[in-house]
Amino acid sequence: MTASLSSPVYPLVTSSRATPRVLSIAGSDPSGGAGIQADLKSIAAHGGYGMAAITALTAQNTMGVHAVHVPPVEFLRQQLDAISSDIDIDAVKIGMLGDAAVIDEVRRWLEEVRPAVVVLDPVMVATSGDRLLRESAEKALRSLLPLADLITPNLPELAMLLGEPEAPDWSSALDQGKRLAAECGNTVLVKGGHLAGSECPDALVNTSGLLRRDVVEIAGPRVETQNSHGTGCSLSSALATVQARTGDWEASLREVKPWLLQALMSSDALEVGQGSGPVHHFHHQQGLKPGAFAAALWNHATPELEAIYSLRFIQELQSGSLPEPWFNYYLAQDAIYLNGYSRVLARAGALAPTEEEQLFWAKASQQCLEVESELHRNWLGSRETSTVTGPVTKSYVDHLLASSASGSYAVVLAAILPCYWLYAEVGQQLHTAYVDAGAPADHAYADWLRTYSDEDFAEATRKAINFTDSAAVGASDGERDAMVEAFVQSCRYETAFFDAPRLFA
Ligand SMILES: Nc1ncnc2c1ncn2[C@@H]1O[C@H](COP(=O)(O)OP(=O)(O)OP(=O)(O)O)[C@@H](O)[C@H]1O
Ligand SMILES: Cc1ncc(COP(=O)(O)O)c(N)n1
């Protein structure tokens, strides 16, 4: 049998939307941890456009549910019809329904609209033990199951839907999941949140061949926290959103489960309530604290600094025993390097977001050319040197130019920074050691070592560090990764640059 070209077995591109429009049909939790409030946060955290039709109002907090009010069902119909008569809906998540009349109304609407993705979280009892669905409505809820693509019961809900006792362990929970999936013909997510022990697995179960196996289990650790309010709501709405993008339940769960784990782990930082608090839906968007990125860069630079201090070039420059041809080679390459570096600093000026930074880099670019001509005037004129660009100089400048071609201000700055930071650091060390040795006038490189005590350069270095740190705060995760890569590479070139005279002079 040959696969038809028009209908590939494994479509490479699913018809997904960048920002899926996701509707939560659920109850309101005014404390913000569960219900539509959690759903809207989850949907937004996964890049969806969230909408909410409210089935019921609760008066609850992290300690428990004080009251439930189910508005007239006609008003729910008006909400649902208002949305679907105007907006294309890519996915629906259904949570608390309250009573049988609400369930009937939602069923009517689902049958009419037939959304592409329907996730049903059969909410019955809150974590606090309070009922969120009338007992008399349990049968009505069962009748809704075939209209869902994915059902996400916790262990007590799974048992109730089957009319069986609650599963005592994970393998009986999976058996129950299979029975429910077979009964309603769709996919069941069996959740391990209510199990005991250090593990918290979840499993997708489908007995009609939709998944690659009947049971696809995704393991996970259990977070030691009492902040599990709304985990089920958050998980189901996140799954609905991601599914609208991936079209693949396993891929969706693999994306959402680690997010929920981090949301549970970061929950303490929110400090909401005295009972079972909410999870941190936006843990992944917590901004960088000022200075944190620069500190992380410095950690990357430390091994390179150690390598620099152990180089013969640096040790003999400090002692004064450095062979002169090595020093001459270093100075000549420095002049060549500064010419290229100046161009990259000018590019940073061109990309700078503020006038202060534009001015700083423009000045730095000019000063760089001034230092280059001073090198020629005062140092290189009387020495025997080559004007040929050495291999390390060439690679270093090429790396800087490539970073500037990325077009990202943040990445250019990260590439530029080691020349300031490591040079300032090494220079300060060498100068201090010279002064500590009594600043001997007969030291072969005394004049050069004295140039290292430049407070203006130290101040410029501090500014360059701060600008790089601020650029990182506003950068995307991908850009920050590129910054670290560019910075680390420049650090390696700094070491290679000091070692080049030994190899090529
Ligand atoms: N302590 C925990 N550590 C790690 N994951 C957890 C923890 N508690 C729950 N989860 C995860 O949260 C999700 C919801 O699971 P759970 O079984 O608690 O559902 P639920 O009872 O419907 O949630 P809710 O608390 O909102 O009623 C699952 O993915 C589960 O694995
Ligand atoms: C409006 C509403 N919907 C759902 C839940 C379940 O969440 P949990 O079991 O974490 O209390 C809730 N408490 N309130």
- State the secondary-structure class: alpha/beta
**Rg value:** 32 Å
Separation, N- and C-terminal Cα atoms: 68 Å
* Gross CATH architecture of the largest domain: 3-Layer(aba) Sandwich
| CATH class assignment of the largest domain | Alpha Beta
Kindly report the name of the CATH homologous superfamily of the largest domain: Ribokinase
- Oligomerization state: single chain
Please tell me what the overall shape is: elongated
Domain Pyridoxamine kinase/Phosphomethylpyrimidine kinase: 29-280
Pfam family, one: TENA_THI-4
Keywords: ATP-binding, Kinase, Nucleotide-binding, Thiamine biosynthesis, Transferase
Domain Thiaminase-2/PQQC: 312-500
How would you characterize this protein structure?
- With 505 residues, this protein is of the alpha/beta class.
- It has 2 domains: 21-284, UDP-N-acetylmuramoyl-L-alanine:D-glutamate ligase, CATH 3.40.1190; 292-504, Up-down Bundle (Heme Oxygenase, Chain A), CATH 1.20.910.10.
- Helix content is 54%, strand content 9%.
- The chain has helices at 35-45, 73-84, 100-113, 138-144, 155-162, 170-184, 231-246, 249-265, 292-309, 312-319, 324-351, 355-380, 391-405, 409-436, 446-450, 455-473, 477-504, and strands at 21-28, 49-60, 65-69, 91-94, 118-120, 150-151, 187-191, 202-205, 215-218.
- Helix 2 runs parallel beside helix 3 (100-113), helix 11 (324-351) packs antiparallel against helix 12 (355-380) and helix 13 runs antiparallel to helix 17 (477-504).
- It binds adenosine-5'-triphosphate (ATP) and (4-amino-2-methylpyrimidin-5-yl)methyl dihydrogen phosphate.
- Adenosine-5'-triphosphate binds at residues 34, 127, 154, 191-194, 200, 202, 220, 222-223, 225, 228, 230-233, 235, 257, 260-261, 264.
- One of its GO terms (biological process) is thiamine diphosphate biosynthetic process.
